[in-house]
Specification:
The structure holds two protein chains of two kinds. Chain A has helices spanning 15-32, 38-46, 51-72, 88-105, 109-117, 121-148, 158-162, 166-193; strands at residues 86-87, 152-154. By secondary structure, chain A is mostly helical. In chain B, α3 packs across α5 and α7 (138-147) crosses α8. By secondary structure, chain B is mainly α. Chain B has a domain at 102-176. Chain B has eight helices and no strands. Classes of the chains: A mainly alpha, B mainly alpha. Chains A and B meet through α1, α2, α3, β1 and α4 of A and α2, α3, α5, α6 and α7 of B.
Protein backbone atom coordinates (compact mmCIF):
# COMPACT_ATOMS: atom_id res chain seq x y z
CA UNK A 1 0.00 0.00 0.00
CA UNK A 2 2.38 2.71 1.22
CA UNK A 3 4.25 4.92 0.50
CA UNK A 4 1.09 6.46 -0.98
CA UNK A 5 2.47 9.13 -3.33
CA UNK A 6 5.35 7.07 -4.85
CA UNK A 7 2.89 4.19 -5.35
CA UNK A 8 0.44 6.49 -7.14
CA UNK A 9 -2.37 5.98 -4.59
CA UNK A 10 -2.43 9.73 -3.94
CA UNK A 11 -1.91 11.79 -7.11
CA UNK A 12 1.18 13.96 -7.49
CA UNK A 13 -1.00 17.07 -7.62
CA UNK A 14 -1.62 16.78 -3.89
CA UNK A 15 2.11 16.84 -3.17
CA UNK A 16 2.39 20.47 -2.12
CA UNK A 17 -0.89 20.58 -0.19
CA UNK A 18 0.31 17.59 1.82
CA UNK A 19 3.72 19.25 2.25
CA UNK A 20 2.14 22.31 3.86
CA UNK A 21 -0.15 20.23 6.11
CA UNK A 22 2.69 17.97 7.33
CA UNK A 23 4.84 21.10 7.83
CA UNK A 24 2.12 22.76 9.91
CA UNK A 25 1.97 19.70 12.16
CA UNK A 26 5.78 19.66 12.43
CA UNK A 27 5.99 23.36 13.29
CA UNK A 28 3.13 23.08 15.79
CA UNK A 29 4.80 20.21 17.65
CA UNK A 30 8.19 21.99 17.72
CA UNK A 31 6.74 25.24 19.05
CA UNK A 32 4.35 23.61 21.52
CA UNK A 33 7.25 21.57 22.95
CA UNK A 34 9.25 24.74 23.65
CA UNK A 35 11.73 24.66 20.73
CA UNK A 36 10.95 28.27 19.81
CA UNK A 37 13.31 29.32 22.63
CA UNK A 38 17.07 28.95 22.16
CA UNK A 39 17.55 28.82 25.93
CA UNK A 40 15.26 25.81 26.19
CA UNK A 41 17.16 24.08 23.39
CA UNK A 42 20.69 24.68 24.68
CA UNK A 43 19.59 23.48 28.13
CA UNK A 44 20.33 19.99 26.85
CA UNK A 45 24.06 20.85 26.78
CA UNK A 46 24.17 22.43 30.24
CA UNK A 47 21.79 20.14 32.09
CA UNK A 48 19.10 22.64 33.04
CA UNK A 49 16.51 21.56 30.45
CA UNK A 50 16.48 18.21 28.67
CA UNK A 51 13.37 18.85 26.59
CA UNK A 52 15.35 18.34 23.34
CA UNK A 53 16.52 14.90 24.42
CA UNK A 54 13.04 13.88 25.61
CA UNK A 55 11.23 14.94 22.45
CA UNK A 56 13.95 13.75 20.05
CA UNK A 57 14.49 10.31 21.59
CA UNK A 58 10.76 9.66 22.12
CA UNK A 59 10.07 10.59 18.50
CA UNK A 60 12.86 8.26 17.32
CA UNK A 61 11.58 5.31 19.35
CA UNK A 62 7.99 5.81 18.15
CA UNK A 63 9.04 6.29 14.52
CA UNK A 64 11.48 3.35 14.43
CA UNK A 65 9.10 0.89 16.05
CA UNK A 66 6.09 2.25 14.16
CA UNK A 67 7.76 1.99 10.77
CA UNK A 68 8.72 -1.60 11.49
CA UNK A 69 5.11 -2.45 12.41
CA UNK A 70 3.86 -0.77 9.23
CA UNK A 71 6.31 -2.91 7.27
CA UNK A 72 5.36 -6.07 9.21
CA UNK A 73 1.65 -5.61 8.55
CA UNK A 74 2.36 -4.95 4.89
CA UNK A 75 1.06 -1.35 4.98
CA UNK A 76 4.36 0.18 3.99
CA UNK A 77 7.07 -1.21 1.76
CA UNK A 78 10.27 -0.10 3.49
CA UNK A 79 12.31 -1.00 0.42
CA UNK A 80 10.50 1.79 -1.45
CA UNK A 81 11.22 4.62 0.98
CA UNK A 82 14.07 7.10 0.65
CA UNK A 83 17.18 6.16 2.59
CA UNK A 84 19.56 9.02 3.24
CA UNK A 85 22.87 8.34 1.44
CA UNK A 86 25.96 7.90 3.58
CA UNK A 87 29.19 9.82 2.93
CA UNK A 88 31.18 8.93 6.01
CA UNK A 89 33.84 11.65 6.41
CA UNK A 90 31.86 14.55 4.92
CA UNK A 91 28.92 13.71 7.19
CA UNK A 92 31.08 13.53 10.31
CA UNK A 93 32.63 16.87 9.29
CA UNK A 94 29.18 18.34 8.56
CA UNK A 95 27.88 17.13 11.92
CA UNK A 96 30.83 18.69 13.75
CA UNK A 97 30.32 22.03 11.99
CA UNK A 98 26.57 21.85 12.73
CA UNK A 99 27.36 21.04 16.38
CA UNK A 100 29.51 24.18 16.60
CA UNK A 101 26.76 26.19 14.88
CA UNK A 102 24.24 24.70 17.31
CA UNK A 103 26.11 25.75 20.47
CA UNK A 104 26.85 29.24 19.08
CA UNK A 105 23.47 29.83 17.44
CA UNK A 106 21.13 28.02 19.83
CA UNK A 107 18.80 26.77 17.11
CA UNK A 108 18.66 24.28 14.30
CA UNK A 109 16.93 25.23 11.02
CA UNK A 110 13.43 23.84 11.73
CA UNK A 111 13.24 25.26 15.24
CA UNK A 112 14.41 28.69 14.06
CA UNK A 113 11.48 28.92 11.61
CA UNK A 114 8.98 28.39 14.44
CA UNK A 115 10.81 30.88 16.66
CA UNK A 116 10.63 33.58 13.98
CA UNK A 117 6.89 32.93 13.82
CA UNK A 118 6.45 33.99 17.46
CA UNK A 119 8.77 37.00 17.18
CA UNK A 120 12.29 35.89 18.15
CA UNK A 121 14.92 38.12 16.55
CA UNK A 122 17.78 35.75 17.41
CA UNK A 123 15.99 33.12 15.29
CA UNK A 124 15.69 35.56 12.42
CA UNK A 125 19.44 36.25 12.54
CA UNK A 126 20.10 32.50 12.74
CA UNK A 127 18.04 31.92 9.58
CA UNK A 128 19.82 34.75 7.75
CA UNK A 129 23.04 33.04 8.85
CA UNK A 130 21.82 29.74 7.35
CA UNK A 131 21.21 31.50 4.07
CA UNK A 132 24.67 33.10 4.09
CA UNK A 133 26.32 29.81 5.05
CA UNK A 134 24.65 27.84 2.27
CA UNK A 135 25.52 30.61 -0.20
CA UNK A 136 29.18 30.45 0.84
CA UNK A 137 29.12 26.67 0.53
CA UNK A 138 27.59 26.81 -2.97
CA UNK A 139 30.06 29.40 -4.26
CA UNK A 140 33.00 27.52 -2.75
CA UNK A 141 31.75 24.14 -3.98
CA UNK A 142 34.35 23.75 -6.79
CA UNK A 143 37.09 23.88 -4.14
CA UNK A 144 35.61 21.19 -1.89
CA UNK A 145 33.82 19.00 -4.42
CA UNK A 146 36.28 16.14 -4.00
CA UNK A 147 35.91 15.99 -0.24
CA UNK A 148 32.13 16.51 -0.43
CA UNK A 149 31.72 13.39 -2.57
CA UNK A 150 34.24 11.21 -0.71
CA UNK A 151 33.45 8.17 1.41
CA UNK A 152 30.25 7.34 -0.49
CA UNK A 153 28.66 4.12 0.76
CA UNK A 154 25.36 4.67 -1.07
CA UNK A 155 21.87 4.64 0.45
CA UNK A 156 22.68 2.17 3.20
CA UNK A 157 20.87 1.33 6.43
CA UNK A 158 22.46 0.10 9.67
CA UNK A 159 21.26 -3.38 8.71
CA UNK A 160 22.95 -3.22 5.29
CA UNK A 161 26.27 -2.35 6.92
CA UNK A 162 26.23 -4.65 9.96
CA UNK A 163 23.88 -7.48 8.97
CA UNK A 164 22.06 -7.04 12.31
CA UNK A 165 18.24 -6.85 11.90
CA UNK A 166 16.65 -3.41 12.36
CA UNK A 167 14.59 -4.68 15.31
CA UNK A 168 17.76 -5.12 17.37
CA UNK A 169 18.77 -1.52 16.74
CA UNK A 170 15.30 -0.32 17.71
CA UNK A 171 15.44 -2.38 20.90
CA UNK A 172 18.95 -1.20 21.82
CA UNK A 173 18.03 2.38 21.10
CA UNK A 174 14.89 2.13 23.25
CA UNK A 175 16.89 0.81 26.20
CA UNK A 176 19.47 3.60 25.84
CA UNK A 177 16.73 6.24 25.54
CA UNK A 178 14.86 5.02 28.64
CA UNK A 179 18.12 5.08 30.62
CA UNK A 180 18.79 8.59 29.32
CA UNK A 181 15.29 9.77 30.33
CA UNK A 182 15.87 8.55 33.85
CA UNK A 183 19.46 9.82 34.17
CA UNK A 184 18.75 13.27 32.78
CA UNK A 185 15.74 13.68 35.08
CA UNK A 186 18.11 13.42 38.05
CA UNK A 187 20.74 15.71 36.49
CA UNK A 188 18.13 18.33 35.61
CA UNK A 189 16.78 18.45 39.16
CA UNK A 190 20.26 19.02 40.59
CA UNK A 191 21.26 21.69 38.06
CA UNK A 192 17.99 23.61 38.40
CA UNK A 193 18.42 23.80 42.17
CA UNK A 194 21.46 26.03 41.63
CA UNK A 195 19.93 28.17 38.91
CA UNK A 196 17.86 31.14 39.88
CA UNK A 197 17.93 33.30 36.77
CA UNK A 198 16.62 30.85 34.16
CA UNK A 199 13.40 31.99 32.61
CA UNK A 200 11.88 30.56 29.47
CA UNK B 1 13.21 25.98 41.86
CA UNK B 2 9.94 27.67 42.69
CA UNK B 3 11.06 30.70 40.73
CA UNK B 4 11.65 28.72 37.56
CA UNK B 5 8.37 26.85 37.89
CA UNK B 6 6.36 30.06 38.18
CA UNK B 7 7.82 31.40 34.99
CA UNK B 8 7.21 28.25 33.01
CA UNK B 9 4.97 28.92 30.01
CA UNK B 10 2.44 26.32 28.97
CA UNK B 11 4.47 23.85 26.96
CA UNK B 12 3.09 20.42 26.23
CA UNK B 13 4.59 17.42 28.00
CA UNK B 14 7.86 16.61 26.16
CA UNK B 15 7.07 12.89 25.96
CA UNK B 16 3.69 13.71 24.41
CA UNK B 17 5.51 16.03 21.99
CA UNK B 18 7.89 13.19 21.16
CA UNK B 19 5.08 10.69 20.54
CA UNK B 20 3.30 13.18 18.27
CA UNK B 21 6.53 13.91 16.39
CA UNK B 22 7.21 10.18 16.00
CA UNK B 23 3.69 9.60 14.63
CA UNK B 24 4.19 12.53 12.26
CA UNK B 25 7.39 10.97 10.91
CA UNK B 26 5.54 7.69 10.33
CA UNK B 27 2.71 9.56 8.56
CA UNK B 28 5.18 11.52 6.44
CA UNK B 29 7.11 8.41 5.37
CA UNK B 30 3.85 6.50 4.79
CA UNK B 31 2.43 9.24 2.55
CA UNK B 32 5.50 10.62 0.76
CA UNK B 33 8.13 7.91 1.08
CA UNK B 34 10.58 10.33 2.73
CA UNK B 35 11.03 12.17 5.99
CA UNK B 36 10.77 15.75 7.21
CA UNK B 37 13.34 18.46 6.54
CA UNK B 38 14.21 22.12 6.97
CA UNK B 39 17.61 23.19 5.60
CA UNK B 40 16.56 22.18 2.06
CA UNK B 41 14.16 25.13 1.90
CA UNK B 42 16.98 27.60 2.60
CA UNK B 43 19.08 25.90 -0.05
CA UNK B 44 16.23 26.43 -2.53
CA UNK B 45 16.13 30.13 -1.59
CA UNK B 46 19.88 30.41 -2.18
CA UNK B 47 19.61 28.73 -5.58
CA UNK B 48 16.65 30.96 -6.49
CA UNK B 49 18.57 34.13 -5.59
CA UNK B 50 21.65 33.01 -7.49
CA UNK B 51 19.50 32.03 -10.47
CA UNK B 52 17.87 35.46 -10.50
CA UNK B 53 21.18 37.34 -10.32
CA UNK B 54 23.09 35.16 -12.75
CA UNK B 55 21.25 32.29 -14.50
CA UNK B 56 24.36 31.20 -16.44
CA UNK B 57 26.63 31.27 -13.41
CA UNK B 58 24.13 29.20 -11.42
CA UNK B 59 23.79 26.57 -14.13
CA UNK B 60 27.57 26.31 -14.40
CA UNK B 61 28.02 25.94 -10.65
CA UNK B 62 28.33 22.18 -10.20
CA UNK B 63 26.36 22.30 -6.95
CA UNK B 64 23.54 24.76 -7.60
CA UNK B 65 23.19 23.63 -11.22
CA UNK B 66 21.68 20.32 -10.03
CA UNK B 67 18.71 22.16 -8.53
CA UNK B 68 17.90 24.40 -11.49
CA UNK B 69 15.20 23.27 -13.88
CA UNK B 70 13.92 24.85 -17.09
CA UNK B 71 10.23 24.32 -16.42
CA UNK B 72 9.84 25.62 -12.87
CA UNK B 73 11.42 27.89 -10.26
CA UNK B 74 13.86 26.32 -7.76
CA UNK B 75 11.38 27.41 -5.06
CA UNK B 76 8.86 24.92 -6.39
CA UNK B 77 10.06 22.03 -4.23
CA UNK B 78 8.46 19.88 -1.55
CA UNK B 79 10.68 21.16 1.26
CA UNK B 80 9.90 24.83 0.55
CA UNK B 81 6.17 24.17 0.97
CA UNK B 82 6.81 22.00 4.01
CA UNK B 83 8.96 24.70 5.64
CA UNK B 84 6.28 27.29 4.94
CA UNK B 85 4.02 24.93 6.87
CA UNK B 86 6.55 24.74 9.73
CA UNK B 87 6.43 28.52 10.04
CA UNK B 88 2.60 28.52 9.97
CA UNK B 89 2.42 25.65 12.46
CA UNK B 90 4.76 27.50 14.84
CA UNK B 91 2.60 30.60 14.49
CA UNK B 92 -0.57 28.59 15.16
CA UNK B 93 0.88 27.03 18.31
CA UNK B 94 2.22 30.42 19.42
CA UNK B 95 -1.22 31.99 19.02
CA UNK B 96 -2.98 29.15 20.87
CA UNK B 97 -0.54 29.19 23.80
CA UNK B 98 -0.19 32.99 23.87
CA UNK B 99 3.47 33.26 22.88
CA UNK B 100 3.21 35.47 19.80
CA UNK B 101 4.54 38.84 20.95
CA UNK B 102 6.49 41.75 19.54
CA UNK B 103 10.07 41.16 18.37
CA UNK B 104 12.41 40.12 21.17
CA UNK B 105 15.72 38.34 21.71
CA UNK B 106 16.44 35.44 24.04
CA UNK B 107 19.89 35.49 25.58
CA UNK B 108 21.81 34.11 28.52
CA UNK B 109 22.15 36.28 31.67
CA UNK B 110 25.81 37.14 31.02
CA UNK B 111 25.55 38.54 27.49
CA UNK B 112 23.75 41.40 25.78
CA UNK B 113 21.09 41.05 23.08
CA UNK B 114 23.55 42.46 20.57
CA UNK B 115 26.14 39.79 21.32
CA UNK B 116 23.46 37.11 21.16
CA UNK B 117 22.35 38.29 17.71
CA UNK B 118 25.93 38.26 16.38
CA UNK B 119 26.47 34.71 17.64
CA UNK B 120 23.09 33.62 16.25
CA UNK B 121 24.19 34.86 12.82
CA UNK B 122 27.58 33.10 13.02
CA UNK B 123 25.96 29.92 14.36
CA UNK B 124 23.42 29.95 11.58
CA UNK B 125 26.11 30.34 8.92
CA UNK B 126 28.07 27.40 10.34
CA UNK B 127 24.91 25.30 10.61
CA UNK B 128 24.12 26.12 6.99
CA UNK B 129 27.56 25.04 5.78
CA UNK B 130 27.51 21.89 7.93
CA UNK B 131 24.04 20.89 6.73
CA UNK B 132 25.28 20.68 3.14
CA UNK B 133 28.13 18.32 4.07
CA UNK B 134 25.72 16.36 6.28
CA UNK B 135 23.15 15.97 3.48
CA UNK B 136 20.58 17.48 5.80
CA UNK B 137 20.21 19.04 9.22
CA UNK B 138 18.75 17.89 12.53
CA UNK B 139 15.34 17.26 10.90
CA UNK B 140 16.25 15.70 7.58
CA UNK B 141 19.42 13.81 8.46
CA UNK B 142 19.57 13.25 12.23
CA UNK B 143 15.86 12.70 12.94
CA UNK B 144 14.30 11.36 9.72
CA UNK B 145 17.52 9.61 8.69
CA UNK B 146 17.94 7.79 12.00
CA UNK B 147 14.23 6.92 12.16
CA UNK B 148 14.58 5.08 8.84
CA UNK B 149 17.75 3.35 10.13
CA UNK B 150 19.99 5.16 7.63
CA UNK B 151 23.65 4.92 8.67
CA UNK B 152 24.25 8.51 7.57
CA UNK B 153 21.45 9.78 9.81
CA UNK B 154 22.96 8.15 12.87
CA UNK B 155 26.43 9.53 11.97
CA UNK B 156 25.04 13.06 11.70
CA UNK B 157 23.04 12.73 14.93
CA UNK B 158 26.05 11.63 16.99
CA UNK B 159 28.36 14.20 15.35
CA UNK B 160 26.03 17.14 16.05
CA UNK B 161 25.19 16.30 19.65
CA UNK B 162 28.66 14.93 20.45
CA UNK B 163 30.27 18.14 19.23
CA UNK B 164 27.69 20.19 21.13
CA UNK B 165 28.61 18.47 24.38
CA UNK B 166 32.36 18.73 23.77
CA UNK B 167 32.18 22.45 22.97
CA UNK B 168 29.48 23.41 25.50
CA UNK B 169 32.04 24.12 28.22
CA UNK B 170 33.92 26.68 26.10
CA UNK B 171 30.81 28.64 25.19
CA UNK B 172 29.01 28.40 28.54
CA UNK B 173 29.06 32.18 29.01
CA UNK B 174 26.66 32.52 26.09
CA UNK B 175 24.00 30.47 27.87
CA UNK B 176 24.47 30.15 31.64
Amino acid sequence: MGPLIPNGIIGGGWDFVIAILLGVAFGFILEASGFSSSRNITGVFYGYNFVVLRVFFTALIVAMVGLMYFDYFGWLDLSKIFILPTYVTPMIFGGVVMGLGFILGGFCPGTSFTAIAIGKLDALLFTIGLYIGIFIFSLGYPLIEGFYNSGNLGNVTLTDVTGIPAAWFALAFTVVALAAFWGTMIIEKRVRKNMKEYKF
Amino acid sequence: MKNTMDNQPKYINPYLGGVLLGLLIIATVFITGRGLGASGAIKSSVVTTANTISPEGTKENAYMGQFVSDDHSPMYTWLVFESLGVFLGGLLSGIIFGRVKKFRTDHGPKITSRKRLIFALIGGALFGIGSQFGRGCTSGAALSGSATFALGGVIVMFSIFGTGYILAYFFRKLWI
